[in-house]
Sequence to fold (546 residues):
Amino acid sequence: MAEGESGVVRTYDENTVVIFDTTLRDGEQSPGATLSSAEKLEIARQLARLGVDVIEAGFPAASPDDLRAVQRIAREVGTPDGPRICGLARAVEGDIRTCWEGVREAAKPRIHTFLGTSPMHLAMLNITQEEGLERIRRAVTLARSLCEDVEFSPMDAGRTDMDYLIKACAVAVECGARTLNIPDTVGYVTPAEWEEKIATLIAETPGAGKGSGVIWSVHCHNDLGMATANTLAGIRAGARQVEVTINGIGERAGNTSLEEVVMAIHTRQSVFNVRTNIDTTQIIKTSRMVSNYMGMPVQPNKAIVGANAFAHESGIHQDGVLKNAETFEIMTPESVGLNQSRLTLGKLSGRHALKVRLKELGYDVDGEQLQKVFVRFKALADSKKVVTDADLEALVADEVVEVKEFFRLGDVQVTCGTMGMPTATIKLVDGEGHAHIHAAVGVGPVDAAYRAIDAIVHAPNTLVEYSVHSVTEGIDALGEVTVRITPPDSPRTFGGYGAHSDVIVASVKAYLAALNRMIAALGHGSVVPEGDAATVGVKSKSQSSL
Fold:
């Protein structure tokens, strides 16, 4: 236990690394990773089950919707026995006050403020080094007057002169910051130089050395593929907080991956001599939830959570694993929550049994939400011999947490094959309950379905990504589809996810989810007048083989 100059008492354990998850803030800045408020809340709840110490819930000043999402997470997830709830704010008075409005209802709120300190960032702000120090002083002082727990980040620290970096950190500590986060904002540094920089900062920053109660943190990006290596180097240098995201999502090439850092610490205890508070058996579930909600599939060879992470095809490897799993596996699949358990419920099973199994998987579903999942479950049980846990997770992701539906799927029917043109008939229901029907032809059934939707909904876009895969093995597997679309003359992308035993239906649901997100964010999208439906909004999708 240590007490800093500000009088804030902080529990500080030299042997425990604080896991600061920024999936809902930095991770959401990934192109196409836009989340609804309901999805953010569900992910926050799962992060709490995972055991993260701090959730950076968003950037409250970014938009009224982001502020509301942070406030809801603060109220519902930021309980006394839950994680700290943090909001990000520029070193600007308005941002800091809005950030406090976002997190103040949490039992353990935190304000995280930042200012660029590298020559490039100071030039971008058109300020001198001395002016930068004064901005830090004002920002941290204001944040500390509102909130006991304040974190400061000198943005682009990896390219900041060491002497100036020490001065910036010293000012922040003097004004009440008790977490100093050092970001490699552009993924520029190498592990050796990063370890040296962190060690030097800890040793030479006044008021922030060992025993001061200040926690040093690192936040690394993956532009050169070294984010995890740099983060682990920071831990070796003395950092005891790491800023990470699920699946390593984030701007450009992404952030440090939570699962990689946690399992490196867990697996190589003799090297790092620290621990975390993470329940590693929740890692796979959290990864899948974030992937599904954000519409961003995990690459098969991704460490820890990829589909191939525990797969063995080589004969030598298979033989070794069968004789002794440790021959080619340095951790067990069960340690990260990967299992192949099967739900032995069938079409005669009731809601209670389904609710109990969902509870075991971490989904507290009741009332109308349970009924929605139950209806889908019964339909799936009729078409599949075995319903797996992965099937259930896909059903929950697809049905319980919904995108605001400006348009929802009523019915879809397709005709395709070698005998004629692929044709799709789509019925959509708008927000006022009105049904709209249109038929279209395409180069494939999915293309035809998307053309029919475009003929109903006037929301021009380009399909930039379409991905389909099965949740489980077998001809009766549930299909998952993720898409990403981008509006005209805009760099933003919007993702959508759909799951169904019929891959065409899954494709339509994913596309509608992406359209609804785009409409919600940009404020446009309407029903095409009936007489124009055959021409307005119809366009050729980039995946001509769909």
